[in-house]
Structures are given as C-alpha cells and as structure tokens.
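Design request, tokens follow.
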C-alpha cells in the first residue's frame, strides 16, 4: 500500500491488518503516556480545503501519538488566496521535507492528482462526495469492537447517500468484511445506479428497522444540495430520522452510528444521540487509533511499534 485513497480496492486481509494494528494503537492511547516513538523524525502535513473538526484533529493527534511532527495548511490563510495552484502548493509543502500529506478537497479525485505529482504517500481525508477511507476504517473498527466481527451483520446506511463520501467508503469496507449493507433513503437522495454496488435498497426505514444490527445515520449535506430534494427538514426527520419511537423498535443489541457532524432533531433525535447504544463518540475515539494504523502502515511499517 503506497497511498490510502479509497476503500474500493482494499482486500479483506489488508482491511483486517489495518484494524488489528488500530486495536493495538487503541490500547496505546489508554496508557498514562499515550505515545510511541514509531514515527519519530517523520513529518505529516494536513492540507484541508474543506471544513473539518474530527478528521483533521484526529490525524494530528494520531501523528503526534506516533511521535511524528505535524504541519497544517489552510487555504484561507495561505498563498492559494494569491492564486497559487493545488500542484504548486503541494510541491511547496513537499519541498519542506514533509513525508506524508493528508488532503481533504471539494473536488473529487484531488488526492489522486497529488499522488501522481508527489513522491510521498497521500491519504484521502475526504474528496467531494467520493471517498473518505479513514472514516470507513474507524467505523469498521467500532463495529468490530462491539460485535466481534462484521461477518453476517445487517447494516442500514440511512439518509443522504447521494452526496456522502462516508457512505461510498463504508459500503466497500463493510461488505468486504462480510456485512450486508442496505441503503435507506428517499429516491432523490440515493445515487442513480445503486445496483453498481454490493448493496440492497429500501425507501422505507420502518420496514428494515427491526432486522438490522447497525443503523448508520448520515447528515443531510445541505452544502452539496441535499436539502433541495425533499419538502422540508421536518418531513425528512419524520420519515428517515432516528426518533425515540424507531429506536425502541431496534433489536436490543443493535447500535446507532453517525460520522458527525450531527444535526440533532433532523437525522437523529436529541435523546437517541445521547443513548449509550449510540456509538458516536466511540467512533471519534477510534478515529485516532485507525489513523495511527494508516500513518504507521504508510510511513513506518517495517519497524515494530
Ligand atoms: C463527514 C465528512 O466530512 O465527510 N464527516 C466526517 O468526516 N466525520 C460527513 C459529513 O460532513 O456529514
């Protein structure tokens, strides 16, 4: 593995190795000094052209827990505002002696361009509505910790799948690890050709709610046009939101997940978001360990952590 751009072509053994490594790092993060020297001397750059809370901070935390240095680039305060191109910006950052770049960009495919231009590993931190592979790793890690394995689990991914890079990455990782994925949403929020993916489709959350092990809720991506395709957010909440009533009909061991940022009262009710069977903060915690596994694999795999 030279880069991590997508989950689409990751095979089962690579995914399992990354999750096993992440488990080990999750243990490191519970120690009094949550740090190992594995990537001492390496520098990780984050280059985020879109807002982020979880992804950027957890990559920085992951790099630091591996003893790497971090530098961070933000377009608003950079020479991008003076007209510098993506390529020149990336070459500039590389020329400072950076060893790996995590990039988030509004344009689908931007991380692949960086991987062509630069001779260092590139990690996709989210490109347009396309891919967000480390989110899928942390989601699978969270599910595996809870259920032991993804094999045979039924996972409903609910909501704005059309605009969701999280869904695109999760679908491939979850099904490769043996889960069955059902996409649930109004037809206008589903992609035009879901049959191209290894999934089934439902437009009725109530008809699947009692049979699933995981309900994975997505935010309606208003910034990508998500809210323009149904009458109102209130109607969306009524038909596709995780209300207390729907939550009460889940199997007793079933869990609720969300990649964040949540819009409480829309895709998830206030109370459900705080329930102990909502794994949202465990996902965030696991994000650090999953990203440590990725950085370690790309930058230091030959050493023993
Ligand atoms: C998501 C993203 O930015 O792709 N958040 C995240 O990384 N945890 C999902 C979203 O914005 O809804």
């Amino acid at each position: 593995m030279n880069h991590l751009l997508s989950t689409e072509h990751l095979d089962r053994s690579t995914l399992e190795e990354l999750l096993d490594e992440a488990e080990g790092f999750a243990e490191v993060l519970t120690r009094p000094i949550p740090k190992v020297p594995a990537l001492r001397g390496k520098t990780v750059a984050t280059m985020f052209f879109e807002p982020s809370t979880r992804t950027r901070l957890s990559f920085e935390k992951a790099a630091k827990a591996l003893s790497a240095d971090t530098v961070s680039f933000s377009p608003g305060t950079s020479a991008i505002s003076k007209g510098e191109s993506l390529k020149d910006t990336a070459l500039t950052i590389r020329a400072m002696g950076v060893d790996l770049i995590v990039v988030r960009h509004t344009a689908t495919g931007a991380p692949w361009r960086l991987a062509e231009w630069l001779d260092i590993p590139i990690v996709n931190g989210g490109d347009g509505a396309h891919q967000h592979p480390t989110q899928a790793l942390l989601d699978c890690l969270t599910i595996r910790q809870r259920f032991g394995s993804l094999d045979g689990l039924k996972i409903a991914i609910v909501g704005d799948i059309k605009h969701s890079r999280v869904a695109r990455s999760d679908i491939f990782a979850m099904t490769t690890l043996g889960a069955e994925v059902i996409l649930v949403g109004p037809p206008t929020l589903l992609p035009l050709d879901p049959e191209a993916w290894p999934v089934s489709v439902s437009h009725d959350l109530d008809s699947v709610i009692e049979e699933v092990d995981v309900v994975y809720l997505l935010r309606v991506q208003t910034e990508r046009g998500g809210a323009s395709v149904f009458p109102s957010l209130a109607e969306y909440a009524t038909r596709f939101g995780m209300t207390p009533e729907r939550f009460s009909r889940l199997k007793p061991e079933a869990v609720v997940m969300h990649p964040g940022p949540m819009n409480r009262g829309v895709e998830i009710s206030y109370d459900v978001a705080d329930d102990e069977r909502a794994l949202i903060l465990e996902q965030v915690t696991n994000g650090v360990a999953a990203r440590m596994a990725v950085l370690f694999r790309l930058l230091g795999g030959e050493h023993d952590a």
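Comment from the thread starter after seeing the answer: thanks! Strands lie at 43-48, 69-73, 100-105, 122-127, 154-158, 180-184, 199-202, 214-217, 255-257.
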